Fold this protein.
Amino acid sequence: MKKSVLLLSILMTGSIAAAGTELGIEGRQFTINGKPAFLLGISYYGALGASKDFIRRDLDDMQKYGFNWFRVWATWGAFDNEVSVVNPQGKPREPYLAKLRWLVAECDRRCIIVDVTLSRGNGVTGPVRLQNAEAVRRAAETIVTSLKPYRNWYLDMGNERNIRDKRFVSTEELAELRKFIKRLDPNRLVTASYVGDIKKDELKTILLDARVDFLAPHRPRHSKSAGQTAAQTKKYFELMKQLGRSVPVHYQEPFRRGFTPKRWEPKAEHFLADLKAALEGGAAGWCLHNGDQKDRPKSKPRRSFDMREAGLFDQLDEQELKFIRQLKAVIAGYIP
């Protein structure tokens, strides 16, 4: 792939408005409307609890700064604000399913890609839910059927599905769920996010047995993470070559501010370094992850975790905004 084509796509897909936006995959890269694209995104988890005015302003800011992708959860209920589009058994839950449909349609018009994430949950972001294969399958059917006309979104079938608590989703379950979704919508892209760096044996099962369309690892969150991202990404491609199947590597949830502030609080330079490393390693996407501030009263600012009182960009702090203001210049000047 020519560098100029990739860089142009990074910078432009966040600002071009076009109806009928379509996400695809070509080799190790994503495509948007058939053109190679790096998914440059931001966490937008509790979006379904925000007003449409807040959302429109946030989308304007995303496009202004070059973001072309975000992640929203279909099962979210942080801070006693249940905004899930399905109930614990996977059945439709209004008005939030209609809100999700409106959001995806608005992004379709703006040429923005949407990650729609399912999670069984561990009681932190709402009640424990989707605790059996039938419930997860029903939730997937609810979402896929409702959003089927739109091609600008993909489904994360299980957030951090390898954690051995109530969030766990087995490889066998993922394989069956993927088959079910592909029967409903053959070209719908699906993944299953994974906490930590994926070891070879685990990579083999998720790649060859569950057959996800791309990898979505959640890298470790510590001060040395950014310095390891490029090498880890290249290692994934080496391992995939050995396994005989290569797919994109998408960093949809890296480290964030507010997570463990007493241990380590990333600054703008850490976000910039991690993004550069992802690009250098050949990753297909990266996210400015954000959430609540665990060392502050009422965990505020809550950022994407709770947008009832203010939109996302109004809750970002000085380090996140410093990173965002440097974003376009860094990407435009990037040399692998």
